[in-house]
Each structure stands twice: as C-alpha cells, then as structure tokens.
UniProtKB/TrEMBL annotation:
Protein name, per record: Transposase Tn5 dimerisation domain-containing protein
A Pfam cross-reference name: Dimer_Tnp_Tn5
Organism this protein belongs to: Bradyrhizobium retamae
Membrane-spanning intervals of the chain: none
Domain Transposase Tn5 dimerisation stretches: 39-126
InterPro entries recorded: RNaseH-like_sf (IPR012337), Tn5p-like (IPR047768), Transposase_Tn5 (IPR003201), Transposase_Tn5-like_C (IPR014737)
C-alpha cells in the first residue's frame, strides 16, 4: 500500500501543484486540498482501472459528455466493435502525450493527469459553446 500512497501524493503535489497555492486561511486551504484529493484519486483510479479492468464499460469512469468529446476529438478505430474503458482511457492518455505504440507500456499517472486536464478544458468549452450557440 505504501507505493500507492506515494503515487497518490505525487499526483497531489506534482499534478495538482497543491504546494503552490497562495491561500491564506485554513478553511480555504482545507477546501482546496479536499478537492485536489478527489482529483488525484480519480487520476490514480483511472490509471489502475486501465490495467485491472480494461474491458469494463466506459461509463464506469467517464461521463457521457467526456465520452462524446473523446469520440469526436481523438480519431482511432477500436480493435473490436465494442468501445471499452481501456479504449477511452488510452484516448485520454493520448491527449496527455502518450504515443500509444504497440511496444509502449500502459499509460501512467502523468499522461493521464495531463490528458484529463485537457479533456476537462475541452469538455467545458464544448458545453459553453453549445449553450452559447443554442444547440
């Protein structure tokens, strides 16, 4: 369990940059760290899901909006007819810089963090754009 805790803290410190916050009150800092813990857990959980349950349905970890954005944004053909969770998690990793070559190991936490960050920005932009355009 120690390795998992270390990886979680690495995501919290390096990915979320928790130590760089300039908040001055304990309540605000507590709220920020609580939110960062949820984000760090999600990144770590998705990375581990890709390795332990690759054939799970994508709705296990992703919202319908995220799935729709990934389908439109990252063009590739799934190996089978069914689009699995692993298929979508690799798309997220590709947004974060993962090359997805045949000889590459499974995506790690860093590319998952970067990819999720980009996906969130793009999904928010798509929702605001659809709302703004009236679609």
């Amino acid at each position: 369990m120690r390795w998992k805790i270390e990886v979680f803290h690495k995501i919290l410190k390096s990915g979320c940059k928790a130590e760089e916050s300039k908040l001055r009150t304990a309540q605000r800092l507590t709220n920020l760290i609580a939110l960062f813990c949820i984000l760090s857990w999600r990144v770590f959980w998705m990375t581990m899901l890709n390795r332990s349950a690759p054939d799970a349905p994508p709705t296990l970890a992703l919202t319908a909006t995220e799935i729709g954005v990934l389908d439109r944004l990252v063009n590739d053909k799934p190996k089978g007819r069914q689009k699995t969770l692993s298929h979508y998690l690799i798309k997220i990793a590709r947004l974060g810089g993962y090359l997805a070559r045949a000889s590459d190991p499974p995506p790690g936490n860093t590319v998952m963090w970067r990819g999720l960050s980009r996906l969130t920005d793009i999904a928010l932009g798509a929702m605001v754009g659809a709302e703004f355009m009236g679609n």
